[in-house]
């Protein structure tokens, strides 16, 4: 019997582990752009004996993107995947730059497709290299632990089983299986920060520190993510203990460790309606000052026009007519 090439085995083992908790009859969708990572992922998911379908998203941002989507869908049907869907999205009017807008549209389309066909999971082809890039980008913009935790292995219906698999192995797996990946020109476009990190920053780090820097960055993300989960649980409990009839007790907040208090205030701000994408470190610092550096200052204004003020021993939400 022919020996399975190690890169093929690595991808298949990762997928098998990532789906181990799902019933054997569960439908799995693979989000596939036609690149090496998602092609290897789709092939491995099917090899594991699962009911596997495929979704490819056409963002309409490149000439011929519709033809590329049809080509990926045709490959999937020939390979026996079912259902196979092409989701066409528009990024017009979505917040952020082109990358952020495309990501928002893509995830919404994948989520909707999963709901329509009753899929138990949507698999994403992000690899260990993608995780290392994400951590480095988070460090560059001064992100806290939440940013340094990188991409989660699971969130809702989405799963990333290849986060411990090297990008080089997905390419080698495709070559061994006779799959012809599509090379996305955006991945080498220096207009995008991630492309610059991929082309120069990470290779420079590898040259300076050795090849272990990539798995070490990805491992750091996993360790920080575990710490985040614990701190999030503690901060949720702390927030409940700080609730008062009017809002939050400043005395109860002041008694918390700073890391717990900051997370509790962040969670409360989200409860009040502040959108997570717009809620910044500075907003939480300003809320914290109402607790730890109170000297009669005025209200703190959060995104979405939300005001928070200190009234005696409580932090309370205020509206413009309440502010004097």
UniProtKB/TrEMBL annotation:
Question: What chemistry does it catalyse, as a reaction equation?
Answer: cytidine(34) in tRNA(Ile2) + L-lysine + ATP = lysidine(34) in tRNA(Ile2) + AMP + diphosphate + H(+)
User: Does Ligase show up as a keyword for this record?
Assistant: yes
Q: Which GO terms describe its cellular component?
A: cytoplasm
Q: Name one Pfam family in it.
A: ATP_bind_3
**By its UniProt entry, which InterPro entries does this protein fall under?**
Rossmann-like_a/b/a_fold (IPR014729), TilS/TtcA_N (IPR011063), tRNA_Ile_lys_synt (IPR012094), tRNA_Ile_lys_synt_N (IPR012795), tRNA_Ile_lys_synt_subst-bd (IPR015262)
Domain tRNA(Ile)-lysidine/2-thiocytidine synthase N-terminal intervals: 28-199
- Protein name in the entry: tRNA(Ile)-lysidine synthase
Source organism of this protein record: Actinoplanes philippinensis
Q: Which gene encodes it?
A: tilS
């Amino acid at each position: 019997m022919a020996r399975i090439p190690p890169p093929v085995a690595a991808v298949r083992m990762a997928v098998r582990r990532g789906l181990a908790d799902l019933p054997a009859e569960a439908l799995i969708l693979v989000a596939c752009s036609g690149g090496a990572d998602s092609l290897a992922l789709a092939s491995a998911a099917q090899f594991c004996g699962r009911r596997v379908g495929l979704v490819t998203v056409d963002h309409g941002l490149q000439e011929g993107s519709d033809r590329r989507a049809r080509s990926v869908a045709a490959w999937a049907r020939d390979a026996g995947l079912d259902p196979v869907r092409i989701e066409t999205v528009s990024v017009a009017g979505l917040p952020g730059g082109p990358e952020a807008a495309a990501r928002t549209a893509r995830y919404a389309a994948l989520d909707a497709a999963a709901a329509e066909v009753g899929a138990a999971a949507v698999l994403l082809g992000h690899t260990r290299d993608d995780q290392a890039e994400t951590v480095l980008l988070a460090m560059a913009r001064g992100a806290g632990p939440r940013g340094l935790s990188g991409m989660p292995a699971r969130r809702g219906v989405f799963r990333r089983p290849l986060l411990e698999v090297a990008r080089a192995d997905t390419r080698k797996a495709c070559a061994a299986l006779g799959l012809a990946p599509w090379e996305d020109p955006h991945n080498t476009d220096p207009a995008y920060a991630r492309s610059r990190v991929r082309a120069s920053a990470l290779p420079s780090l590898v040259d300076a520190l050795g090849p272990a820097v990539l798995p070490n960055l990805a491992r750091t993300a996993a360790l920080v993510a575990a710490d985040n989960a614990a701190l999030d649980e503690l901060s949720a409990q702390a927030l409940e203990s700080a609730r008062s009839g009017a809002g939050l007790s400043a005395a109860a907040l002041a008694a918390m460790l700073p890391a717990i208090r900051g997370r509790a205030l962040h969670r409360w701000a989200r409860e009040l309606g502040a959108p997570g994408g717009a809620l910044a470190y500075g907003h939480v610092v300003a809320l914290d000052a109402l607790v730890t550096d109170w000297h009669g200052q005025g209200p703190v204004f959060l995104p979405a026009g939300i005001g928070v003020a200190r009234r005696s021993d409580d932090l309370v939400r205020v509206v413009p007519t309440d502010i004097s």
